[in-house]
Amino acid sequence: MPASLLIVDDDRNFTESAADFARLRGFQPYVAHSLEQSRQFAHLPPLDLLLLDLELPDGSGLDLLDDPAMPQHDRAIIVTGQPSVESAIQAVSMPIGDYLLKPLCPIQFDALLKQTAAARGILLSGENRHGMIGRCEAMCRVHEDIDRIAPSEASVLVSGASGTGKELVARAIHVASGRSGPFVAVNAGAVAPELLASHLFGHERGSFTGASHRHAGYFEQANGGTLFLDEITEMPLALQVYLLRVLETGTVTRVGGTESIATDVRVVAATNRDPQQALDAGTLRDDLFYRLADYQIALPELRERGTDVQLLAQCFLDSLNARHGTSRRFADDSDRVMLRHPWPGNVRELRSTIQRSYLSSDGSLVRIRPLQHRPRSMQADSGGVGFSVGMSYAEIEREMLMRTLSHFGNDRTRTAQALGVSVRTIQNQLARLRGGQDRSV
């Protein structure tokens, strides 16, 4: 049975949010907005946690603690937005587990649920599942995808921005698959193109200058296990053809060799680009995509994961405290800072920020200090569009159009699709620009 929670509060926004939060963590929540509604749950089995507001329309939440019409409970917590010395003294004299103030911090509430579940020996949903921390809806879907696809032999294509955890997903699939062989990871974009074939498929002695001995490639090394091919869209097209053949036949031929070597390898590929955009741009072959994408998993960016950023930050801080023998905690404004920052570097940026903030803290409080910078992917010299204060709308429009045309090799159809307009609009805009240039001469 899941852990159970009854929330008694007349603030409907609070009860709905708290119930949703608890439900995502694996709890069975019940909600009441008055003493009378609370008594309707008398038939329930003993509750694991009772969350009470002091000020209710028909009395005080403390009245429920001695009410015989209430279900039994293991722990009661007071949550109030109107604290007073009198109520605090009264709570101390009663079997109250804690006296908390609104607004309730998500990390504080999460810790409360974790303690309650631990008393029952229950693992909370989304808490370090598959080696990944996250309880938002998008991450719950990722966990479900891993559970669903891992036992099969299907190839998997994982997409997501840099720093979202693509390799963690690949490792989780490998672990959950039960395959006895090793997990081997290779970044196709980090290996020189002329050496990538040798790294992947191996080579025979003397097959090229410097090949002084026979070498088993990553496919052979991963036999019986999983091969993770990161940044698959960075692989040269000629090698993509050979990779497709290996995936189709289940055999590999070393560079300079003639022998076909059978391999039992499950392939998980990843890209930080949208797969459809990679196909449109011609950096990923259609036939290889279909072979790799037996199943697709898309990872959310950190700014889309809500309070997961706080869970992850606390995990990183706990790790630093354990490593250095400290007990530092986040400053009071940390939640606000973390939730407002866009985290363009995703979890990798968050980890770096927590470590830097920890090392720069003098006392027991850690103040979050994200770096204020524009990621290179957003800069004009790397394919992005550069705007500056003072530019007119016409100048911005022209810059966007010309940059997008250049990106797609002056293909007006693809440019129109990318900008969400018709080809005729592109043609008219170019005509206006040419007309302006003619008048300026």
From TrEMBL:
Question: Gene3D superfamilies given for it?
Answer: 1.10.8.60, 3.40.50.2300, Homeodomain-like, P-loop containing nucleotide triphosphate hydrolases
Matching Pfam families, A to Z?
A: AAA_lid_14 (PF25601), HTH_8 (PF02954), Response_reg (PF00072), Sigma54_activat (PF00158)
Residues modified as 4-aspartylphosphate are 53
Annotated keywords? ATP-binding, DNA-binding, Nucleotide-binding, Phosphoprotein, Transcription, Transcription regulation
Q: InterPro entries, per this entry? A: AAA+_ATPase, AAA_lid_NorR, CheY-like_superfamily, Homeodomain-like_sf, HTH_Fis, P-loop_NTPase, Sig_transdc_resp-reg_receiver, Sigma_54_int
Using the record's annotation, list all stretches that form the Sigma-54 factor interaction domain: 132-359
Q: Which residues form the Response regulatory domain?
A: 4-117
Alphabetized PANTHER family for the sequence: PTS-DEPENDENT DIHYDROXYACETONE KINASE OPERON REGULATORY PROTEIN-RELATED, TRANSCRIPTIONAL REGULATORY PROTEIN
Task: From the Swiss-Prot or TrEMBL record, give the protein name.
Answer: Sigma-54-dependent Fis family transcriptional regulator
